[in-house]
Design goal:
By secondary structure, this protein is an alpha/beta fold. It has a single domain, classed as 3-Layer(aba) Sandwich (Rossmann fold). The protein is 33% helix and 14% strand. The strands form two sheets. It has an eight-stranded mixed sheet, sandwiched between helices. β7, α11 and β8 form a beta-alpha-beta unit.
């Protein structure tokens, strides 16, 4: 059983823990966050492997790990889109020492989805430490569906355990909201250790935000706002919604003399408006995080009009016409799944089951680890569908109504 005996005390000091985080971040940490931003932009490309080839190449890997014999990039799987917009990809990136789960955004969610919340304390079996924890219902639903079609991230667990790399989560826009829900679930279970979201609106109430902060202290968990991106303001501060994680405001357009063309401000206080976004800002600021949307590196400036125009003209309702989901809300409560999980540094023999190995072998045989999302029509189809996922509270059952 995964022990978290000191969590109650940790929660009591979570606010102080975030406030005591570094007022500045190292250049290496900026490099690390920037890579997550590039990946969140690459999620809008149908071929992230090709898009990211210029960034995650052999030369970059050898600069950080001269003796590494690993491939600089391994595409693990694409997943979705589900009915609720859960979509993205997973890649192994040795230069980052990470297996990164990337959630794609979904334009139009703010007009299609309501602002209801769901009890994630009960949904994710967070116990007495999170009795009143709630999260954005649509983002939670999207995560549940993605979790289901990937068999609770079976391939990700396999690659984390066989490579020794750490599990990291990122996303942009609505994908950044889903990434935060994923981070709560997977961080609580001791699986994920890093989380970075970009241009995301508020997701949690104060109780859930406090728990998330306790799981990803300081630089391990950041929410990033580019220039005057208005999307983080779409859900205002309230009893139901507040910002979580360390704020990171990047300013620039990729052409200045600042690091990577951007200056930055760190916000350790969630009430710091510098990292809140700007309700009067240009939506174009939402479409470029270190690189234009749909790209994964140079040029770090300008626009990607083909992808940007498609993004802006695609409402969430379009996904309902083509996306499928096997999610069925259970009618009776099922026994909770165990919280006993192996840490990211554990050996494959501890939790890399024969099923996981077989799934990875099948994926490799079918080209899933080297091809791209365009070839993964249903995302992790090699895995099959999980059975009854978890008991969903009444609010979650009705959120697609």
């Amino acid at each position: 059983m995964f022990a978290r005996t000191s969590l109650v005390a940790a929660l009591a000091f979570a606010g102080a823990k975030l406030a005591l985080a570094q007022d500045d971040v190292s250049s290496s940490q900026f490099w690390h966050e920037r890579y997550h931003g590039l990946l969140s932009m690459a999620a809008y490309n149908s071929d992230p492997t090709t898009a990211c080839a210029q960034t995650f190449d052999q030369a970059a890997l050898e600069q950080s790990f001269p003796d590494s014999t690993a491939a600089p990039w391994t595409y693990v799987q694409g997943f979705g889109p589900t009915v609720s917009g859960g979509e993205g990809f997973v890649a192994v990136i040795p230069e980052m020492d990470k297996v990164v789960m990337v959630f794609k955004g979904l334009f139009g969610w703010e007009s299609t989805f309501n602002q209801s919340t769901v009890d994630v304390g009960e949904l994710f079996y967070l116990g007495d430490n999170c009795l009143n924890c709630t999260a954005h219902a649509a983002a939670t639903q999207a995560y549940i569906e993605a979790k289901e079609i990937t068999n609770d991230w079976e391939l990700v667990k396999y690659y984390v355990n066989t490579t020794g790399a750490q599990w990291s989560i990122t996303g942009h826009g609505f994908g950044g909201m889903v990434a935060q829900v994923a981070s709560l679930d997977l961080g609580w279970r001791g699986l994920a250790h890093w989380t970075h979201n970009h241009g995301a609106a508020r997701v949690f109430n104060p109780a859930a935000a406090t728990l998330l902060n306790s799981l990803y202290g300081g630089e391990a968990g950041q929410r990033v706002v580019a220039n005057d991106d208005p999307v983080p303001t779409y859900i205002p501060e309230s009893e139901d919604y507040t910002f979580a994680l360390q704020g990171f405001h990047i300013l620039g357009n990729g052409t200045s003399n600042a690091t990577y063309g951007y200056d930055f401000t760190v916000c350790n206080d969630p009430s710091d408006a510098a990292c809140h976004g700007n309700a009067e800002g240009r939506i174009e600021d939402h479409l470029s995080y270190y690189t234009p949307i749909g790209m994964c590196g140079k040029p770090y400036y300008g626009t990607n009009d083909t992808v940007a125009d498609a993004y802006l003209s695609t409402a969430s309702s379009a996904f309902y016409a083509t996306a499928t989901s096997t999610f069925v809300a259970p009618t009776t409560e099922v026994a909770p799944t165990t919280t006993s999980e192996v840490s990211s540094t554990a050996s494959a023999s501890a939790s890399g089951s024969a099923t996981e190995a077989a799934a990875a072998d099948n994926a490799a045989a079918s080209g899933q680890t080297t091809t791209n999302a365009a070839n993964d029509t249903n995302g992790a189809s090699v895995l099959g569908v999980a059975g009854s996922l978890v008991a969903v509270v009444a609010g979650a059952v009705a959120l697609l109504a």
